[in-house]
Amino acid sequence: MTAGLLSQRPATYHIMSSGYELVFVEVKTRSTTAFGDPAEAVSAVKAARIRRLALHWLAECGPRLGGARRDVRFDVVTVVRLGHDGPRVSHLRAAF
Question: Domains in the chain and their CATH numbers?
Fold first, then answer.
């Protein structure tokens, strides 16, 4: 598996590759769930922005992938810091 970054201030999105699949990952970290699960912060507007950035990245970097067709997926990883119990990490595959 390889990884890269796609940056648009103030957020950074991670790009993972495994075989013929590219996975664009939004990571949300919170210190509490008092205002909801971190995944809820990925709105339709934010998902559309990530899709546009992915298309831009594919247009620029796609030719360097060797011309192989790749499936694309959009995941969300959430991290909630729970103090002494350590973080709680959730991985939502194909979140949007």
Answer: 2-92 (3.40.1350)
Rounded to the nearest 5 percent, the helix, strand and coil shares of the chain are 30, 45, 25
Tell me the C-alpha to C-alpha distance, in Å, between residue 6 and each of 34, 37, 61, 65, 85. Answer: 29, 24, 11, 16, 31
Is the CB of residue 80 less than 8 Å from the CB of residue 33?
yes
The residue with tokens 């810091």 is 81
Residue 66's φ and ψ, nearest 5 degrees, are: 85, 15
Across 2-6, 44-48, 49-53, 74-78, least confident range? 2-6
Q: Which residues pair with 51 in a beta bridge?
A: none
pLDDT in the model for residue 16: 85
Give residue 7's pLDDT. 56
What's the whole-model pTM score? Answer: 0.80
